[in-house]
Amino acid sequence: MKTGQLKLQWKKIRQDTVLQNKRSKILTKYKKRLFSLFKFLILLGISYIILGPIISIVSNSFFSPTDVYNPSVFLFPLKPTFDNFRLAMLRLNYVKTLSFTVVYISLITLIQIFITSMAGYGFARFEFPFKNILFGCVIITIVLPTHTIMLPLYQHFRSFDFLGIFESARGSKLNLLSSETPMFLMTILGSGLRSGLYIYIFNQFFRGLPKEIEEAAFIDGAGMWYTYLRIMLVNAIPSVLTVTVFSLVWQYNDMFYARLFSMASDHIITFRLSTIQATIEFVDKVKDPLISQLYVYAGVILVLLPILVIYLILQKYFMEGVERSGIVG
């Protein structure tokens, strides 16, 4: 009898919709919490892998020589010092080299924005012979490793001539190496560092803009250049900011073209950073590689700071531009 009553009560409980809803809500709640915990652990692991080396560099940049050989010191120095930064700034000739670098990459970036936006606008809005083939060539420049064209580029700018004009006039070809001229020429001709990607970004953005904007401008009497410069380019500000951030960061960190064209190390701060350890070991007689490495860490922080500030200022517009250009997802 008692067993039958218990079964009946259990059956009623199972059929009680209120209890079922409560149980379902509790299960859903715990599932969400478990999923959130799982996401947190995944993000924590990825963050540690990405940020771990940076945290280590920041920490080591404040180490004193005694901290290096103290086995009890981990991440937090016992005797933090700014001497590493002082010597790194001196050997980098920080202010002068950074100023030259900023001027150089700013000019390259401005030219790149102007040239690639025009190319992207042309591909998005105009019909001309071999358009698809030419755009395919742009895509190839994105995926083609730059190392495969390293030798032709070097030979081309080592003996630069245009239709034999320089050889006829001077008796010899121009050697444009050991200067920034090859980078400016490549940028002006739309084949600079990552120019193919920037053309693609602008092309995607302009294709997304309604044609009625241009048609209204043409009806009001605006010419082609006025429409492009005063209307279309103004509407493309998110893409302009995206390309600006990409170009500034990649030009700032570029070592490939700096070495290939033998640019002066006192003009490119990242190039100069690559020689700081040897300079300190030779000039300041710091022969211990573990100690001289501390100055390299300090130099890395000094070189990172400007580009980090630029990114933080433009972060909002950068993310918006990436989403609207269609280069994600």
Automatic annotation (TrEMBL):
Membrane topology field: Multi-pass membrane protein
Family, per entry: Belongs to the binding-protein-dependent transport system permease family.
Pfam (any one): BPD_transp_1
Record keyword Transmembrane helix present: yes
Primary residence: membrane
Record's subcellular location: Cell membrane
One example of a Gene Ontology biological process annotation: transmembrane transport
UniProt protein name: Transporter
Transmembrane segments: 34-58, 98-121, 133-154, 183-206, 227-250, 294-314
Superkingdom in the source lineage: Bacteria
GO terms under cellular component: plasma membrane
Keyword set includes Transmembrane: yes
Species annotation: Anaerocolumna cellulosilytica
Keyword vocabulary terms for this entry: Cell membrane, Membrane, Transmembrane, Transmembrane helix, Transport
